[in-house]
Amino acid sequence: MKKVIINENQKGFLFHNGRFVKLLGAGKYPLFGAREIEIVSLKEPLISAKCELDTLLANSEVAKLTSVCEVTDQQLALHYTSGKFDGVLRRGKYAFWSVLERHEYQLVDISTPEVAEDVPQYIFAKLPTTVYTKVEVAQYQKARLYFDQKLIRILDAGTYYFWKNNIRVDVNLVDTRLTRMEITGQEIMTQDKVGLRINFVCNYRITDYVKILTEIDDYAGQMHVAAQLALRDFVGKQKLDDILANKDELSRYAFERLKAKENEFFVEIIDAGVKDIILPGEIRDIMNTVLVAEKRAQANVITRREEVASTRSLLNTAKLMEENPTLYRLKELEHIERICENVGNINLNGNGDVLSQLMGLMHPGTAS
């Protein structure tokens, strides 16, 4: 006769002729005739390979020792075992042994993608990604949230979770940082028919993240066109010399034109200005030639001015020495000193004083 042993952490299902008879606890049981015993672990869900779950639960002894959870359509059940999250249960009927562990369930409505506030976010790291959608919005972003292509709300920076169901979830991220628009090499004709190429830059920030999408088509393109028109309007009415002399005025005009359209474009214009004005090659060469000529003329004027000043200084010195013999004598001594600094040897005789002999060297025939 065959015997079956059931341990303390196990239960046994007794079957006779394939029909469930009763629940068996720990112990040793003989098998004879058409009797069968199916052994199951108390740490595993209540499942039998020989009969349906409802058949087992119909037994009062089994029902008393188990915890049952039934999940309907459009629901999920968050399963906690002894206070710890153990997994998610989808549609169906589940039973767990409550002999060794405590089982709790949190039924979640997934008919809408919105996750209820009482669902802790940490469990999503343990859930399969097939049941939820994760959305991350950076610190410098906003996000437009859509359910079935219908705008729901604006999401601030953070991490968001949405249940997956038959409702489509879309998120459109928008950068909230300062955005730059550049116009490069815009060709514009001046009033005096000179073709210029202008580089223009504008910094702006979006102010209404909903209306900029729903009430205006391609706001960036329209801002680009508005800036082009402002530049053309100003440059086309000015001559080249006036434009070059009033570059800041051109920047100010374009900025004010764009600023006036802030409400229309749902943006805030922070600043705007002309980076470069590029002249045609021929005009640039002519202007360089003119500039060189002007600088040379200025240099000549300065040179002549210095020469006049130097001559006037010499004239004043000569007049002073003519009127003052002592000053003239001091000037001679100054020159003698300079000569002596550059002469190696000077031979003097004993006739006359030293100064007279030195003067005789400078002015032959005057020494006595």
UniProtKB/TrEMBL annotation:
Lineage: superkingdom: Bacteria
Transmembrane parts of this sequence: none
Gene3D superfamilies per the UniProt record, alphabetical: Band 7 domain
Residues annotated as domain Band: 135-291
Residue stretches in coiled coil: none
A single GO cellular-component term on record: plasma membrane
InterPro entries linked: Band-7_stomatin-like (IPR043202), Band_7 (IPR001107), Band_7/SPFH_dom_sf (IPR036013)
Family: Belongs to the band 7/mec-2 family.
Name of the protein this chain belongs to: Peptidase
